[in-house]
Design a protein that fits this description.
Arc Repressor Mutant, subunit A; mainly alpha; 2 domains
Length: 220
């Protein structure tokens, strides 16, 4: 291995050690109480070394946000490109993101505190992952439209709308006391939304043909 390769490997190892140390401390003590000095001691590096890789504690949180969301995004993309009907893949993608984030928060005692005090930079970074999620969902919607199992005029806009809608079921927005309750709710909402995307019957003139509901007690 070349000297440059060894330097690159060592550099990557130090950065990873800093991130592992930071996450261990933040999930145990919370973001506000964790300091750069604490992280340096935990990572067995000097404080100056931490600043070689990260300008601030916020930068460290951004890197941790990327680690989690990149992993989720890769799995969502794998699900999206796999077999199965478009509707089932949409549900699986949505469920994976929501339930993975739920499990992450529940696993660590201070995760909710970290999320509740999210800095604008972190919110902005998360918005980018929501858009990426929407692009994946848009591709599946387009495939469903091409197969005739879904119907919409703008798959790209629909995918983004779906991603934004279901993001409100992720921390800190969720209000569910159990994993099963959240999972059931996600499944029910996904079914409801997907029913709205099912092809509608059309008459000879192209008009939408759907049965009308007559309210009881009302005369025509």
């Amino acid at each position: 291995m070349s000297t440059g390769g060894r330097r690159s490997s060592a550099s990557g190892d130090k950065r990873e050690s800093i991130l592992h140390a930071a996450w261990a401390l933040i999930r145990h003590y919370g973001f506000a109480k964790t300091t750069i000095d604490d992280i340096a001691r935990k990572a067995l590096v000097g404080k100056g070394t931490v600043y070689l890789y990260f300008r601030s504690k916020t930068d460290i949180m951004l890197a941790l946000t990327d680690l989690t969301n990149e992993r989720i995004s890769r799995e969502v993309e794998r699900i999206a490109s796999g077999p199965g009907a478009a509707e089932e893949r949409i549900k699986a993608c949505v469920s994976h993101r929501i339930m993975t984030l739920y499990d992450l928060v529940r696993r660590y005692p201070h995760s909710e505190d970290v999320i509740a005090s999210m800095l604008p930079e972190i919110v902005k970074r998360l918005d980018g992952y929501v858009r990426r999620h929407g692009q994946v969902l848009a591709q599946i919607v387009a495939q469903g439209c091409a197969a005739g199992t879904l119907e919409c005029q703008d798959p790209a806009a629909t995918g983004q709308l779906l991603a934004s809608l279901f993001e409100f079921m992720t921390p800190p927005y969720y209000r569910f006391k159990s994993r099963s309750a959240l999972e059931k709710f996600v499944d029910q909402v996904a079914d409801l939304v997907l029913r709205g995307l099912q092809p509608r019957p059309h008459g000879p003139d192209g008009a939408d043909v759907r049965p009308t509901t007559v309210q009881k007690g009302r005369r025509a």
